[in-house]
Specification:
The protein is mainly alpha-helical. The protein has a domain at 41-138. Helices cover 74% and strands 0% of the residues. The radius of gyration is 20 Å and the shape is flat.
Length: 141
């Protein structure tokens, strides 16, 4: 009985320490990403996710939907949020929808004139989503 109590105390102490240092959240994100990657090859996962979220499937079939997710992917890549990106890519089925996880894909948004994003200072490296928000708040009606 004493050993069980000590085990629980140790577990709680380790858990709290990892939580305070921000490590536990990263471990959870990595675990979620690993689970989705492990299930990625399974057709069941793809069909399950599609039947669960028809709104997302329809959105990703549209040009605007793919563009929106391309901006989100670029933002996650910019901030090196690998686990979040892996979970999003798998959960939303971005690869199947044609949303790539490369910075070049967001550059195509300007080329296609889908989203006009000014770049007054090309030396400033920031995600296109941030630039888009800045541009939209700096315009006068």
């Amino acid at each position: 009985m004493e050993l069980d109590r000590e085990d629980h105390e140790l577990r709680d102490l380790v858990s709290q320490t990892l939580e305070n240092k921000g490590v536990l959240g990263d471990i959870r994100a990595q675990l979620r990403a690993s689970i989705f990657l492990a299930l990625d090859d399974e057709e069941k996962l793809t069909s399950y996710l599609k039947t669960k979220n028809n709104k997302l499937t329809s959105f990703l079939e549209s040009s605007n939907g793919r563009q929106a997710f391309t901006l989100i992917v670029e933002l996650l890549e910019h901030f090196n949020l690998k686990h979040s990106l892996a979970v999003l890519t798998q959960e939303a089925g971005l690869a199947a929808a044609g949303v790539t996880t490369s910075r070049d894909s967001s550059d195509n948004l300007n080329d296609k004139k889908c989203v006009k994003i000014s770049d007054a200072n090309p030396a400033t490296v920031e995600p296109k989503l941030v630039k888009l928000l800045k541009d939209s708040t700096n315009t006068t009606p």
